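User: I'm writing a tutorial on reading structure tokens. Could you give me a worked example: one chain, its sequence, then its tokens, then a sentence or two explaining what the tokens reveal?
Assistant: Sure. Here is the example chain.
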Amino acid sequence: MRPRLILSGLILMTLLLAVLNMVCGSVDIPATQVFRILFGGEADKPSWAYIVMESRLPQMCTAILCGACLSVSGLLLQTCFHNPLAGPSILGITNGASLGVALVMLVSGGVIGMSVSGNHVAGFLAVAVAAFAGAMGIILLLLFLSRFVTSNLLFLIVSILIGNLTSSIVSLCNFFANADNVHSYVMWGMGSFSDVNLGQLPLFAALSVAGLLLSLLLSKRLDLLLLGDRYATNLGIDIRATRRLVLSATGILTAIATAFCGPVAFIGLAVPHIARLMVRTSNHMVLTPVTMLTGAVIALLCNLLCILPGNLIIPLNAMTPVFGAPVILYILLSKKA
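And here are its predicted structure tokens:
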């Protein structure tokens, strides 16, 4: 009964925050006008229809999908490696995506008409493809190393070293790049749900849903991994194959989210812990959907709080630590206790 109530509550919160994200914004649009536009009616001002359909609607959908993808990727990694601090950024996947974007933005000099805001189609595609390629490159490297490294702890250490190596390469790119390209890269690194327009949304949604479905199919394997490697092996689970599947699913989810939204911080690390505290179960058939919805709720809430009075919008990564850091601190203190 408890998981059903929590799922119902999260669905209602997601719907409520989705409506608030559609109604609230830097431009004051009456709620009646917003709903009229959504249901196919004509707005009093043509600019309002453009803002609602081309900005707020895709931004709201992107926040839901990105929050779900990053949260589930963190859950998969924390379960697979039996480490509460495992996440996409810890394994260097996010760093790989950042490296791909740095090579395009900083090294290429922006010669293909790049724009972080997404106004230039060629620029947005270049950034998205570079981020996806960088993240998947790290995943392929981790999959290769997983054949030789059997210890979960040692594998995490190797992953952290790879992440530090990619960060150092990004730092070198920043050092030799000009000021305009560095500024563009810094803006991309702050994260945003507003870079996906209505035309790009179907592709982002299809890729995200595919990755989320793959994570749901891994639920039974993840439950067995919680019993310990030896017990899971005795039940017929191939630990190495399962780890490779988890890494693949995590790579897909993280690469998609980072490619379209930038390196969004803390959601993948903190949200799985919030979901566990709510449902108080390790059953991934329950925990995974709760994590998806919790990630969507947190992402929508952060996106809503980024809008300040006076038509000011603060960066997304300035808001996510407000929710993520206290959760991680609580987990660390409770583990110590």
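What the tokens reveal: Strands lie at 307-308, 312-313. The CA atoms of residues 40 and 54 lie 14 Å apart.
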